[in-house]
From TrEMBL:
Superkingdom in the source lineage: Bacteria
Protein name: DUF1577 domain-containing protein
Pfam families: DUF1577
Organism: Leptospira haakeii
Length: 382
């Protein structure tokens, strides 16, 4: 089964031949290592290390399955996590294989807590709060919920205005000023398109200085606006904050007026409107799944969980983290936020997630209750 790391652990890579020899011969020779393939039950034993060619001879009980991929990753957890990334060179004989060591890495930090296998039915993940659709700054296809909200707020603005109003997503091919607004997440306001001072001043750090940041050829821009009879122009970015608190410029409010000057106060008012748009989108894009999902193993730092819900199986691998409850049998839930460290699929195509706790419940004593449950489980008393 395939295995995908999203937030890899911090590793030190060993490049010296002497250091590689030291680590492999002292800590890994005649030791059992695990293949980095979920469900992590396939083992190999290093029987010999050939220093000159940086190759290892490994024994694999029942052999390796034939596949087109000749990359092999093995790991062992001692005081620290040690990983060997190798290339399969050849099969020597039954159950014996020769590997070329491409990389040897050791985790920068010691493993702080042991993993505890969780018996079926003892602990679950539930009340998963996640995004229906992953929204990012480079979306090729704009989600319908974004389009609908943009159109709704555009129509609301147009009700009492004769201005040219556009609310849309950032797309390829837009004028340079839109690209600068997207990249900087700053607003552009030209109160008077025929006054060069409007292009040279920015009243606060959230506003673009047209001359310095977009184009210093003001003369041609002024003439173009005059020909188009545009008196004033503003562009306000719409900044979406996802469940990971990343700030993502997903769209813009663009207004051109032919009969009045657009003011700083109006720009601020549009800022409040932009926040309202984002709130509506976020509300529309958030789903709470109340099914229970089995926790396979757990530690003080995180859990491994099996997800069988079709929608979550599709969307969670695209997300960085999400909020959920940890539920021990016959107990009140513990609410936590978890970062996805890795994911894979099992033989039934169910999603397996490795989650690291990002933040824990603010309720006093809940972390202690979680640790106490792990201790009881380890003793078989839960």
């Amino acid at each position: 089964m395939q295995y995908f790391e999203k937030n890899s652990r911090a590793l030190d890579y060993i490049v010296s031949k002497d250091q590689k020899k030291h680590v492999i011969t002292k800590y890994l020779l005649d030791q059992e290592l695990t293949f980095k393939v979920d469900p992590f039950d396939k083992k190999a034993t290093i029987k010999k290390y050939m220093e000159e060619d940086e190759k290892v001879l490994i024994y694999v009980q029942d052999g390796l399955e034939e596949s087109g991929d000749n990359k092999v990753s093995l790991y062992k957890i001692l005081a620290k996590f040690i990983e060997l990334d190798c290339i399969l060179v050849q099969k020597i004989e039954k159950d014996l294989y020769l590997l070329k060591v491409e990389r040897l890495a050791i985790a920068k930090l010691n493993r702080e807590s042991a993993r505890i296998l969780v018996p079926n039915g003892k602990a679950f993940v539930t009340n998963v709060v996640s995004s229906k659709t992953v929204i990012d700054a480079n979306m090729f296809n704009i989600p319908t919920l974004v389009k609908v909200n943009f159109e709704d707020y555009k129509n609301r603005l147009k009700k009492n205005s004769t201005d040219n109003i556009v609310i849309d997503a950032f797309k390829p091919g837009l004028d340079r000023k839109f690209e600068i607004v997207k990249r900087t997440r700053k607003s552009l306001l030209l109160e008077d398109t025929q006054n060069t001072e409007s292009y040279m001043t920015a009243m606060n750090p959230d506003r673009l200085n047209y001359t310095k940041e977009i184009d210093d050829d003001i003369g041609s821009v002024v003439r173009k606006f005059k020909d188009q009879k545009i008196v004033s122009e503003l562009i306000r970015p719409i900044i979406y904050k996802n469940h990971s608190n990343d700030l993502i410029p997903i769209g813009y409010i663009w207004i051109q007026s032919r009969d009045k000057k657009l003011s700083s106060d109006y720009l601020e008012e549009l800022g409040r409107l932009s926040d309202e748009v984002v709130g509506r989108i976020k509300e529309s894009n958030t789903i709470k799944t109340i099914e229970r999902f089995r926790i396979l193993d757990a530690s003080a730092k995180g859990i491994k969980v099996k997800i069988h819900d079709p929608n979550l199986m599709d969307t969670l691998p695209k997300q960085e983290d999400f909020v959920f409850d940890v539920l021990f049998k016959m107990q009140a839930p513990l609410t936590v936020s978890g970062t996805i460290r890795w994911w894979s699929k099992d033989e039934d195509e169910h999603l397996i997630l490795g989650l690291e706790f990002k933040s824990k419940s603010d309720h006093p004593g809940e972390r202690d209750r979680y640790i106490k449950n792990l201790e009881l489980m380890q003793k078989g008393a839960l």
